[in-house]
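Progress note, sequence design subtask.
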């Protein structure tokens, strides 16, 4: 009984921290957008008819603008020719350009280069579904999730339409650089394999469509965090009856069922292809969703099962490291050894939302009555973490098969870069230091992203160095 009460208290604290942080991010975006909208329309107020209350009206306008630009397929930026664009792919609960108004998931890093794209993918959808969306975001057309997959998971086969892709010339001669944060890195790897397998009807794709992949705190081998949040360690698919993820599930279902247009335009979990709207399923459909009879959480077609160690092994067993693609990985950690025990490396240096999570992940022990996720698994290997992912998971693909890799202390040590090898370095940071809030990272922010962009522009090429716009000869 005491253990049950302790678990409930832990759940309450964890849920409260996440809600406060989520509200902080959302309200920050809303406040900024309302301020911008009010300033832009201030000179016209006397000539306009009565409008909705300022806060609601401004937010609706901003959300509608995002919808027109990104969701309706009217690409605000269509790139053509050389040099290859850099595509920033967000992680779980993330968002791309056009969501949350003017807030940037990558904290404005996209402004460091003239040819950067920031797609908006499902924030909680499966890695498979997000990989399919990413392809059509770039190439154009209607998102096709695949007939077999759609039938197996019980959702519509086709999704949003991009009349003009953001990089319609994408092919072997016009490849792209990808930078994926957290689960975004695994999304790119799955997309890469799909390209190699020619998995997109009507398109003659190949693995050479991707020039480089940079993984930033990438979920390459899963995380023990998923078990703390509610995934069952026995199978990596099911959830405990009472856990943080169950609260998340209920919230997402109600959010999608209510289907408030301006709100979903502002932020969307990405489950539109499951058609959970009240307009489609009615009140009886809501009951079925809440009881777990239908929906993505029943089929397992959402992000958390893909982030368990078992789910990652299943995905990794199909993925290759390709000989003509450059790979670089930044693994983050916020832990250290104290008298032989792994503990958080600091208190003030860890985001308040992540400190408890760092401590929990240091203490993770695989249940003795549950089968090990893979042969050779050891708890101590998974202690170092950044509050969301284990450091061992972020360096390079290693389970079930270890891919070619090389540890890097200084970036200059790996020049010239060789394709087909995962170069990786370990940096002192928590999982969200380099996203959303640029001020937190300080000078580290510019050092990191400048290094990534410079590598893409000057060190990752197949034939000859690309011509960089606005670069003058010395």
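Output:
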């Amino acid at each position: 009984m005491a253990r049950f009460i302790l678990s409930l208290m832990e759940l309450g604290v964890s849920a409260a921290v996440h809600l406060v942080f989520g509200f902080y991010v959302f309200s920050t975006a809303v406040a900024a957008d309302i301020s911008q909208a009010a300033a832009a329309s201030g000179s016209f107020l006397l000539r306009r008819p009565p409008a909705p209350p300022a806060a609601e009206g401004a937010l609706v306008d901003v959300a509608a603008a995002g919808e027109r630009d990104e969701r309706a397929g009217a690409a605000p930026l269509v790139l053509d020719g050389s040099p290859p664009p850099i595509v920033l792919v967000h992680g779980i609960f993330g968002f791309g350009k056009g969501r949350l108004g003017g807030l940037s998931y990558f904290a404005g890093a996209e402004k460091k280069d003239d040819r950067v794209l920031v797609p908006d993918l499902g924030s909680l959808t499966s890695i498979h579904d997000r990989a399919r969306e990413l392809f059509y975001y770039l190439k154009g057309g209607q998102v096709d999730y695949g007939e077999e997959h759609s039938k197996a998971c019980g959702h519509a086969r086709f999704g949003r339409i991009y009349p003009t892709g953001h990089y319609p010339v994408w092919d072997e001669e016009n490849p792209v650089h990808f930078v994926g944060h957290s689960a975004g890195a695994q999304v790119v790897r799955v997309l890469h394999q799909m390209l190699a397998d020619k998995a997109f009807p009507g398109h003659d794709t190949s693995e050479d469509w991707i020039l480089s992949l940079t993984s930033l705190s990438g979920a390459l081998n899963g995380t023990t965090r998923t078990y703390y949040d509610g995934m069952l360690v026995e199978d990596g698919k099911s959830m405990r009856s009472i856990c943080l993820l169950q609260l998340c599930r209920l919230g997402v279902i109600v959010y999608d069922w209510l289907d408030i247009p301006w709100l979903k335009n502002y932020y969307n979990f990405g489950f539109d292809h499951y058609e959970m709207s009240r307009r489609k399923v009615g009140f009886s459909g809501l009951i079925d969703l809440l009881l777990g009879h239908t929906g993505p959480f029943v089929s397992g077609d959402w992000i958390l099962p893909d982030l368990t160690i078992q789910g990652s092994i299943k995905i990794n067993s199909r993925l290759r490291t390709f000989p003509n693609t450059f790979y670089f990985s930044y693994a983050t950690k916020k832990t250290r050894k104290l008298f032989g025990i792994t503990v958080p490396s600091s208190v003030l240096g860890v985001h308040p939302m992540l400190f408890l999570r760092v401590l929990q992940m240091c203490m993770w022990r695989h249940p003795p009555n549950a089968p090990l996720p893979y042969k050779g698994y050891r708890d101590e290997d998974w202690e170092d973490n950044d509050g969301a992912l284990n450091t061992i998971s972020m360096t390079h693909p290693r389970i079930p098969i270890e891919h070619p890799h090389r540890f890097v202390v200084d970036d200059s040590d790996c020049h010239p870069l060789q394709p087909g090898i995962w170069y990786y370095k370990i940096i002192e940071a928590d999982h969200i230091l380099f996203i959303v809030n640029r001020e937190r990272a300080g000078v580290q922010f510019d050092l990191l992203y400048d290094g990534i962009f410079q590598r893409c522009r000057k060190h990752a090429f197949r034939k000859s160095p690309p011509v960089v716009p606005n670069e003058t000869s010395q």
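The chain has 16 helices and eleven strands. Work on this subtask will continue into the next period as scheduled.
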